[in-house]
Every structure is written in C-alpha cells, then in structure tokens.
Amino acid sequence: MASNLAGLGVSSGAIVGDITAFGELRRRLMDLGFTPGAAVRCLFAAPSGDPRAYMIRDSVIALRGSDASLVTLAG
Amino acid sequence: MGLTLRSVGRGAAADEKSGPRADLSVALAGNPNVGKSTVFNALTGLRQHTGNWSGKTVVTARGYYDYNGRTVAVTDIPGAYSMRAGSAEEEAARDYIAFGGADLTVVVCDAGALERNLNLALQILELTPNVILAVNLMDEAKKRGISVDTGGLSRALGVPVIPMAARRGRGVEELRAAIDGFEPRPFAYTVRYGESLEHAAAGLELTLENVLDGRLGARYAALRLLENDPKTLESVNSHLGFDLAAHPRVSPALDRARAELADAGVRDVPGLLISGLYSAAASVRARCVTGGSGYGEGQLKLDRFLTRRSTGIPVMLLLLALIFFITVKGANAPSDWLYALFERIGALLSRGLSALGLPGPVHDALIFGVWRVLSYVVSVMLPPMAIFFPMFTLLEDLGYLPRVAFNLDSGFRKAGACGKQCLTMAMGFGCNAAGVVGCRIIDSKRERLIAVLTNSLVPCNGRFPILIALITMFLVTGSGLGSSLLASLALTAFILLGVGMTLLISRILSRTVLKGQASSPTLELPPFRRPKIGEVVVRSLFDRTLFVLGRAAAVAAPAGLLIWLAANLRVGDTTALAAVTGALDPVGRFLGLDGVILTAFILGLPANETVIPIIIMAYAASGSFQGYENLDSLRALLTQNGWTAVTAVCTAVFTVLHWPCTTTLLTVKKETGSLKWTALAALIPTLAGAILCALIARIF
Ligand SMILES: Nc1nc2c(ncn2[C@@H]2O[C@H](COP(=O)(O)OP(=O)(O)OP(=O)(O)O)[C@@H](O)[C@H]2O)c(=O)[nH]1
Ligand SMILES: [Mg+2]
Fold first, then answer.
1. Shortest CB distance from B523 goes to which of A45, A47, A62?
2. I need a labelling partner for B602 at 20 to 30 A (CA). Which of B233, B250, B473, B577 fits?
3. What's the CA-to-centroid distance between B57 and ligand 2, angstroms?
C-alpha cells in the first residue's frame, strides 16, 4: 500500500488522506479536489514516467512526482 | 479558433465604458474549459476564440445582445478553480464577480464534473444570491452515461439551473429567458462548515452586519476574515475603502472568534473551508447526478497511446511532420496560382497607371514597390497559413495540446520551467504576441517570464512561410511527393531547433537571471472532444485569410513603397538602401548572410512577412532582374547574388532566431512592465541566432 500519491501505481486507486504541501500548492491541490477522503486514481504516466495523470472528482489532473508525494493516502 | 492576437480576446475586449449602455450586466464565470466562451459566443453572436484546453481565454471580453427590449452586457472571464484566487487573472476574475458590479453571475458548469464545478458555484453563492447555473456539456455527459437532474439541482441550490449543450446551441434561448426573468429567491443553499467554525463565525457575523450595512455579505466577510488570506482581504478592503480587520468594532470580535477557534482546536481554517465546500458539493451531486463515473475506456486507450514511452514522442513528431507535409504539398499549387493571378492583375494595373499618364517613377514605385510586395505576401504567406491553421486547430479542439505539454513536461522541468510553456509555444505558432499574452496561464512568475522571453523562438505566422520558401528553393528542390516529404522533414527540423533552443535558453535563464526552483504546475487534461470539422476549417480559413490580407494591406504595402524608394532613389551615386546594405555587409557575411539579408531582417522588424520581398527588391534594384513568375525565377535571382545552400540555411536559422517583431516587443513590455525584460526578449534570440549562424558559416 503506497503511503503517498507519488507511490500509487498506474491503474490503481486510493483515498486521499492529507495534504502535506504548504502555501500556494496546498491551496491549489485542495481547490482541484484533493481533499481528505476524496477518491483518486492514477490513469497514466508521461513517457519519462513523470508527471502522471490522476483522476480526481471526475477530472484528469497531471502532477509532478515531487508534488504528488505531498498528498498522503488514507489506510 | 485561430491563433492570432484575437484568440486571446483582444478583439472582443471592449472597455467597460465604451460600447452601448446596458440595462443588465451578466458575468460568465466557471472552471476552465467548461465552455464559457462557447456560451458567450452563443449569447452574443461574437466569435471569442474557444479551444479544448484550460486557459484559452486569458483576457476578459465583453459583448452585448438585445432581449425583450433590453440590452444585456455579457462578460467572458478567464476560468478559475476557486474564488480564493491564485494567479493575477484568477484574482481579476474573482474581483470582477465579487465587486465588479455585474448584476448577475452565470456560473457555467461541466455536467460531467459537477462536484468540482459546484465547489466554485457554492463559493460564488456565498458572495451573491444573484446566480444562474448553466450546466453545460450535457451532450458529452450523456454520452458518458451521466444524467443530471437539473430540476433537483435547482431546488437544492435555490437558483435557476439551465441545462445546456452550448456548442450545438442548446439551452441558449432558455438561458436568455432565465437571465431576463431573473429574480433572486429567498433561499439559496448555504454551506455549513462544522459546529466550531459556524459558532465562531456567527458571533463575528452579527458585528459585521452592522458595520458593513449591506455593502458586502456579512457571512462572506466573516468567513474571509477567519480564513485570513491576505490577497482576498486586500481586495475586500479596497472594495470597502477601509481595513476591515482593523475596524474598531470588528477587530475585538475577530479576536474573540479566533480565540474560540483555537480553543476548539481548529487550526487550518482554509483547509476546513475547502473540505466543507467539497463535501457539500459531493452531497448535492449525489442527490442530482446518476450514473457514469471514471474515465471512458476509449479515452483512456487513446491517452495511453499518446503518452506511452514507446509511442508518445514518436507520434507527436509524426503528427508535426504530417501537418507540415500536407502544408508544403498543399500550398504549392495555390501559391503558384495566386502568384500568376497577381502578376496578371499587376500587368493590368501597370497599363492603367501608364494610361493615366503618371510619371515613370510613381508607376514603378506603385507596381514594383507596393504591388509586388503585396502579391508576394499574399501568394507566398496565405496558402501555407490557410492550410496549416485549420489542421492545427483540429488538434487543438481534439484536446491534443495539453497532452503535448504533459509529454514534454519533464524536459521543461529539467530546464527549470513549466510544461504549460508548450501551450504558449503552440500559440506562438500563430502569433508571438498572442503567445506572450497567453503566458498568463503559467502561475509561477519566474516561469512565466521564462516563457515570455523565449516565446519568439517558435516561428510565427510571418516567419513560418519564409522557412518553407527557403527550404523549397534551396534545400529540397523539385515538387514530387518525395521532395515534399523531405521538405516537411526539413521544416520539422527547423521547428525542433526552435524547441531545442527554447529548452536550452530556459535552462540558462533558470541558472542565471531567473534563478529558482521549478514550481509545481497542475495541468488539467480535458477529455478528447470531436472537433466540428466543417466549422473549424471554414472559420480558421476565414480568420487566416483576413489576418494575412489585413497585415498585407496595413504593413506590407506601405513598407513596400518605402523600401522601393530607398532601393531606387539615388543619393549621389548610390541609393539609401545600397548604402545601408553595403555598411552591414561585413557583419552579414560573418553570419553567413550578406548585407542585404541582414538589412531585410532589420527592416522587417514591424512585420517579418516583408523580409523576403525586401531582399528581392534590393537585389532587383541593383541588377537587371525581370521576371517573378515563380519560385524558380526567385531562386535564379538569389543565386545570381551569391546565395548557396549555406546562405539559405543561415537565413532560415536567423529566421527562427532573431529579434521578435515590434508588436511582440510591445506586448512583452506591456506584460512584464519592464524595459529590461523587453530588451532581453530581443537580445536572447538574436544572440543565439548570431552564434549559430556564425558557427554554420565557419564550418561549411
Ligand atoms: N461537446 C460539447 N463541447 C463543448 C460544449 N461547449 C463547449 N464545448 C467545447 O469545449 C471546449 C472548451 O470550450 P471554451 O468555450 O473554450 O471553454 P472556456 O470555458 O471558455 O475555457 P477557458 O477560456 O480555457 O477557461 C471547446 O473545445 C468547445 O468546443 C458543449 O456544449 N458540448
Ligand atoms: Mg474561454
């Protein structure tokens, strides 16, 4: 079980635990729907493996690995 | 749909004070890429550009329509995810809705992603009850098996809800009627944020109600004070004209509320607020939306194909080369045809002018100066543009551009820049000035500057056909299928040179004048949407043709006259142009060009379209050049003047890498507000081009 979003494999899903990012990034992630309890799914990755595309609240958002690691997963 | 300066809304953006007096003003708000501009166009009959990616609109536009005897003003504002604004544009959008005095806000939503769209709608409802929800993209949602109970949504939120498929014009009449007959309802949905926060806010609200006296919602103000976001409070304060938190009656109440929250163990108020909004949005969605969730299988397959390691980049390059191939191949015949047509009309004009008894020099200036430049610009520039842009727009409407940004992001990250720069580069293909304005979609200030300074490394409208002409004249001759293929590969190579230089220079900038860490971009990948092919082709053809013809008339024709005069009026035993080209010759030759070419680039500052005609005029004035029938005669003229393949390559490289045109420079000045950055925007590509050209000239 991955502990944060960056560790979530392609095609797997999880529940958002907490946002450990600060400031502007925290604000933006939460505005996009990465809030505690939200369901998230990793859909596919860029050719280099980073960034990755995540399904959150019925939209697809691309995040760099360094930023995805600031979203912890529940459970 | 095209990618001109107008595509960012300049054309439609009218000053609030100019334009007709409106009886009612309506703001169109909503998340990015939900169809706000499409709704705007449907309402007003204007042609604000739309595109399937977030951030197409970066400049507010205004339009009008008449309904039921009243004039309604509509404002199309850039998309935003939240009212807690991040970028300057989101902030402007927020301030407009919050304090801009729109009588009514239409929140455009994506029926397929209601939860996130409702998050914004609920925030707007906290500000004003004068809201209509336009649930757009109903057609797309239906295809995904999602059905929205708009009646239930309306009852739940306490505002009118109009289902729409704006691209097909569905729901537009209903929206007009709802706007016309709007009456605020006594009850609108209020989000509850949990007992501790509600209790603390309630006390503050009572005080605020007295102090604000209706100038701003007390609940909204109380929540903003507790949230304590400096930017939002700044806007609130400037709207009110005083510092709300420091007000003698508010300040103690605020302290009490904060102490209460601290006692209750609430530390992260902003986090609590956004979580509350989302759980409210989720529960409303659960009541009103059935079916469909997750990503369509077909969409996912296509996405994986376009981004996979083995296929992502190759497919991207192939698509680029394919578009160039069709452009090069397709532009050939119409170019020749237009050229011949212009020559024939020119001959008639010439006879007409002679018959009028105009003196020889006036006749020559008009025919060889104005008319020739005009005919060159139209016949050489127009066909490639008219073929390239519809194809490019199809990819844009399909939603491919954000995938390119996604694929190339890691390259930009290593260069200390942002993948969204790809989107601004793509706009640069149309017009670098538009690309520079488009850089507003990049949130980080540092990375936005990098994107602004490097935008002109992508050859625009006026330069792209120069490359095609140079390639087909000197590098790949012949008109067979094979030659067209090779020519398109050569063109791809020159574009990749621009992209490579963009990465390199971005990297250098991140290590020097624009030092800093790569930021954290969040890029939305919209669903693939089937482009409306007919409409795209007709519109972008039309747009392109008007654009090129407009430029030809406004810039190229007068330039043609001036330059003909400079090339032909003798001062002593030389002409002004010959004196200049002679003086620049050593520098030009050092760069693998010559004095004439360098002068042409300098004189082409207002419009790069004129570079090649200037070269032709300068050579023709000093020689005995007669015919211009086709590219072959041009090649002969250039060869006579010492051109080789190396000259052509250096000229092509310099075409990609030199100072941007005046419009672009003025736009950089406007966007950055700094002469220093404007100077750098000119200096950087010039330096890169000079170094590269000098190297090529030395080596070959
Ligand atoms: N299928 C379908 N597509 C639509 C509809 N409305 C808009 N679109 C498409 O959705 C995409 C985005 O539309 P825009 O009008 O540019 O969206 P916007 O909200 O102005 O976007 P930004 O300016 O980037 O915030 C375009 O490709 C439109 O053609 C609709 O009702 N149905
Ligand atoms: Mg728009």
1. A62
2. B473
3. 4
